[in-house]
Design brief:
Blueprint: E1 10-14, H1 18-26, E2 33-38, E3 42-44, H2 49-53, E4 63-65, H3 66-69, E5 76-80, E6 83-87, E7 92-95, E8 98-101, E9 104-107, E10 111-113, H4 119-124, H5 131-150, H6 154-161, E11 163-166, H7 170-190, E12 201-204, H8 216-228, E13 232-234, E14 239-242, E15 246-249, E16 254-256, E17 259-262, E18 266-268, E19 285-286, E20 299-301, E21 306-307, H9 321-337, E22 355-360, E23 363-367, E24 372-374, H10 376-389, H11 393-409, H12 424-432
Parallel strand pairs: 1-2, 1-9, 2-5, 9-20, 11-12, 11-17, 12-13, 19-21
Antiparallel strand pairs: 3-4, 6-7, 7-8, 10-18, 14-15, 15-16, 22-23, 23-24
The chain binds flavin-adenine dinucleotide (FAD).
Flavin-adenine dinucleotide binds near residues 37, 108 and 129.
C-alpha cells in the first residue's frame, strides 16, 4: 500500500461516508498518521440518490472527490481499495491492493441492502444504495418507457411502464412521490404516446404504516399525500418473490412489472474477521458508548454499522446521517485528547435534530422534539437541511439551481440513458486469469 512508517500512532479508517469522512477531517492536524480507505474515490450523498434515479440531479452534484477534501495534511493518506478482511489479533487489514498494519482501526463501512436471505429477489430487483445503482434505476425506467412505445400488446406494455417499489421507509416514500410527479408532469410531454392513466406506481409495505421511524400522524399524512398523487399504497402485504415479469405478494396476488425497486431492508456491511459474538441484529457491530468493540479495544465502529445502546435509545440509534456525523465528531474529540494525562473518555450521546421526509413538491413531513410540521414549511425545511449537509459550495450551488429550475419548469432535464461501455481489456485479463 506504500504508506510510510511513522513514529506517530496510525489510525486506519475504513469507509469515507458521513462517519469516516467526518472523522478523517476532524483528525487533520492531529498527532496521528491517518489512513482513509474507501472503494470509491469520492464521498456520496445518499439522501439524494433517489433524485439521481429520477433524472432530477446529475451524479456529480451529490458526490465529492476525497482527495479534494483532505489535501491539506501530509499525515493523512487516502487509498482507494476494497477491504476484504481484518485480522484483529495481528492488527492487520487485507485489501485488494495489499495489507496494512494499524494501531487503531475505525470501521465506518455503513450498511448494505438486505434481502433477508431471498436470493431470487436479490437477482431480480433494482436497489438504491450507491450512485451506480441509482443510475441503473434511471437507465432501466427510461429504457423500459422507450420499449413500451414499440410494444403493441397492451398487457406486455403494462409490464414495461408499471413500477413497483418495495419498502415504505423514507427512501421508498420519496421515490414513489418523485415517480408520481414524473408521471404527472413529464410523461405527457416526453412520452405523449403513452397514456399516463395506464402507468401505475405501487408502494408495498409489510407493516401497517409507512415511515416506521416517524409518528402515526406523519405516516398517515405521507400516505394521504401519496394517494392523492396517484400512488397505489399497499400495506400489510409482503413480497414473496419476484421474477422477470411479476411481483408475487403474500395475499396470493401478483403485479406485472419489469421495474421493481427494493428499498425494504438494510444490514451492516461487516468486514470478515470481526468476531461473531460482537455482531447483533441485522449484522451491526456492538459498541460501547465510546464506539469501542467488546472484543478489541483498539477497534472502533461508527455510523450505520455501529450498534450502541444508550438510555434514550435502548434498541440502538436510527441509521441516519446525523448519528454517523455526531459519533465521528465525538470519537475525534476523544482521540485528540487521548494522550493528555488522566484524560477520561467522553461517552457518546445522540442529539436528535429532527426527522424529515419529502413526498413531492410542497409536500413533506418533519418532526422535531417539540413540534411536527407538514406541507410547504416542512418541504422548504427539507430542502435547506439537505442543501446544508451537501459537501462543497459548487455542489450546493448546482443542486440549488437545479431545484429552482425544476420547480419553475415542472421538468427535469436529465433524462439521458447513458450506459457504461465495457472495458474489453479488463474482460480479457479476467478470462486469461
Ligand atoms: C437512498 C437513501 C436515502 C437516505 N436518506 C437519508 C436522509 O434523508 N436522511 C438521513 O439522515 N439519512 C438518510 N439515509 C441514511 C444515511 O445515508 C446513512 O445513515 C449514512 O450514509 C451512514 O453513514 P456511514 O458513514 O455510516 O456509511 P455510508 O455513508 O454508507 O459510508 C460507507 C462507506 O464505506 C465504503 N465501504 C463499504 N464497504 C467497504 C469496503 N469493504 N472497503 C472499502 N470501502 C468500503 C463505502 O464505499 C462508503 O463510502 C439514506 C440512505 C439511503 C441509502
Amino acid at each position: 500500500m506504500n504508506i510510510p512508517e511513522s513514529p506517530l500512532p496510525r489510525i486506519v479508517i475504513v469507509g469515507a461516508g458521513f462517519a469516516g469522512l467526518k472523522l478523517a477531517r476532524r483528525l487533520v492536524g492531529s498527532k496521528y498518521q491517518v489512513v482513509l480507505i474507501d472503494k470509491n474515490n469520492y464521498h456520496q450523498f445518499q439522501p439524494l440518490f433517489y433524485q439521481v434515479a429520477m433524472a432530477g440531479l446529475e451524479p456529480s452534484t451529490i458526490s465529492f472527490p476525497l482527495r479534494r477534501i483532505l489535501r491539506s495534511d501530509a499525515k493523512v493518506f487516502i487509498r482507494i481499495a476494497e477491504v476484504h478482511s481484518v485480522n484483529p489479533e495481528r492488527n492487520e487489514l487485507n485489501t485488494d491492493i495489499g495489507s496494512l498494519k494499524y494501531d487503531y482501526l475505525i470501521l465506518a463501512t455503513g450498511a448494505k441492502t438486505s434481502f433477508f436471505g431471498n436470493k431470487n429477489i436479490e437477482d431480480m430487483v433494482l436497489t438504491l444504495k450507491s450512485l451506480s445503482e441509482s443510475l441503473l434505476v434511471r437507465n432501466t425506467i427510461l429504457d423500459h418507457y422507450e420499449t413500451a412505445l414499440t410494444e403493441s400488446d397492451h398487457e406486455k406494455k403494462q409490464g414495461y411502464v408499471d413500477i413497483v417499489i418495495i419498502g415504505g421507509g423514507p427512501s421508498g416514500v420519496e421515490l414513489a412521490g418523485s415517480l408520481a410527479e414524473m408521471k404527472r408532469y413529464i410523461l405527457p410531454k416526453d412520452y405523449n404516446e403513452l397514456n399516463p392513466k395506464e402507468v401505475d406506481i405501487y408502494l408495498i409495505e409489510a407493516n401497517n404504516h409507512l415511515l416506521p421511524s416517524m409518528s402515526k400522524k406523519s405516516s398517515q399524512r405521507a400516505e394521504r399525500y401519496l394517494q392523492k398523487m396517484g400512488v397505489l399504497v399497499m400495506k400489510n402485504n409482503r413480497v414473496t418473490n419476484v421474477d422477470a415479469d411479476f411481483v408475487y405478494l403474500q395475499d396470493g396476488s401478483r403485479i406485472m412489472s419489469k421495474n421493481v425497486i427494493w428499498t425494504a431492508g438494510l444490514e451492516g456491511a461487516v468486514i470478515p474477521g470481526i468476531p461473531r459474538e460482537d455482531l447483533v441484529k441485522a449484522n451491526r457491530i456492538r459498541v460501547d458508548r465510546y464506539q469501542q468493540t467488546p472484543s478489541y479495544k483498539n477497534v472502533f465502529v461508527v455510523g450505520d454499522l455501529a450498534y450502541m445502546e444508550e438510555p434514550d435509545y435502548p434498541n440502538g440509534h436510527p441509521q441516519v446521517a446525523q448519528v454517523a456525523i455526531q459519533q465521528a465528531k465525538n470519537l475525534a474529540y476523544n482521540f485528540k485528547r487521548l494522550h493528555q494525562p488522566g484524560y477520561v473518555w467522553r461517552p457518546f450521546s445522540y442529539r436528535d435534530l429532527g426527522t424529515l421526509a419529502t413526498i413531492g413538491r410542497n409536500k413533506a413531513v418533519a418532526e422535531f422534539k417539540w413540534v411536527t410540521v407538514h406541507g410547504f414549511i416542512a418541504w422548504v425545511l427539507w430542502l435547506f437541511v439537505h442543501l446544508f449537509q451537501l459537501l462543497g459550495v459548487r455542489n450546493k450551488l448546482f443542486v440549488f439551481i437545479n431545484w429552482v429550475a425544476n420547480y419553475l419548469s415542472y421538468d427535469q432535464a436529465l433524462r439521458f440513458i447513458i450506459k457504461p461501455k465495457k472495458d474489453k481489456r479488463s474482460e480479457l485479463k479476467k478470462s486469461k486469469a
